[in-house]
């Protein structure tokens, strides 16, 4: 039997692998593709253990070994029935003849990483995972946690592990224990600029300059500007959250901002960031200075 675990969601892949191992009775072998050669392949895939007839073999990124991967499809039908071979390939090249020959003969399980469109799914997952860690988190706090951490399951799980030691969960506990993701920091930064709070804005920029990549931060800010423009120009019948993959909470917050600002002001904000983007591309000034200049202009709109 061959199982192929694929996709970029390493958290779900590792959890699935743990389930497979837990349900297996026999030898478990982790083999590096670097140790595989055409000469030892028969012993690994057809050999029998001296102590057990059943074997579970785990090989990560076998496709990195080009000489083996190119002929591996020829070995699929030769693998012993007493062997459960688990291949972990985050991004297999589906154009290769080996993948095509494997596809219809294996147990294929694909795990895709979550995106911002999966925030509701992440919130439900957080509530269920908290139960497994023997504590309770309500819908509102789960929403706050996902907004603060993002949808990466590794980061969410590590945050839940911290909260499991905290006792009663509240918004203040989450904010004190769980570090905000760059996206959440940027959301607060943009909101501060929109509110015209220059002193807080400059303080936040000084802090972020020590920890964040300026180009990533600017890209996230640009996304916030785009989302504001979308919300401001949406028809009443449009489902902005679903159509554009914007979390309902973000839509709600930006809707309040859009009502406070007229469309002319929002157009000015879009132009401010378009000009800043052009300046970034030609290195007109130091990147952090360009970010600060753009946000100060937003604060004065």
What does this structure look like?
This protein has 15 helices and five strands. With 301 residues, the chain is α/β, with parallel strands linked by helices. The chain folds into three domains: 2-110, 3-Layer(aba) Sandwich (Rossmann fold), CATH 3.40.50; 116-177, Helicase, Ruva Protein, domain 3 (Orthogonal Bundle), CATH 1.10.8; 182-299, Zinc Finger, Delta Prime, domain 3 (Up-down Bundle), CATH 1.20.272. The chain has a five-stranded parallel sheet with strand order 2-3-4-1-5, with helices on one face. Strand 2 (27-31), helix 2 and strand 3 (55-60) form a beta-alpha-beta unit. 25% of the residues are buried.
